[in-house]
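In this supplementary section we document a worked example of the pipeline. Step one takes a protein sequence of length 181 as its only input; no multiple sequence alignment statistics are reported here. Step two produces a three-dimensional model, which step three serialises into structure tokens for compact storage. The input and output of this example are shown verbatim.
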Amino acid sequence: MKNNFPISLRKNEKEAIPRQIPTEETDITETIRRCKKLVTKRALFSAGFSLLPIPGVNITIDVALMASILNEVNREFGLTPMEIERLSTEQRLQVFGMITAVGSSWAGKYITVPLVTAVLKKLSLQMSATQLSKFVPVIGQVAGAGISFGAMKFIGNKHIEDCVRISRLFAQAKTKTTEQA
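The serialised model returned by step three reads:
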């Protein structure tokens, strides 16, 4: 039976408190800082697991880590489905329009293992190179770790950029609505 539930590696449920979309530049900057720290930490975990000389292990771990990163970044930016649902109907429509305009594949969605697996299949060249590198002692393992780290950082940071763009668009829309009132 496949696990279709969102993946989260949070330490405790207190961290699951719903957040609002940050609209103040200081809040956005602080959210970026927290998210980049999270992405780097999880990318280092991925690289560490890639050093294990067992082909296939790091793919499973990478999928779980990637789902965790994407869900956590969504939560930090107030862009989980649950948090978006708490917005007014007008704001929800605005946010979904902004997600579409930005072209984000991940914002506003629950990120599941099958979803991440499908996307990672598109990155199969990276994954194949990582797996093949397992068969070349030491140098191959280090190369595989570097590839895993780089892929995690790239995807995580790209998602952060998308969420920042959505937050700033939301802030602009909120400002326009306030000025018109």
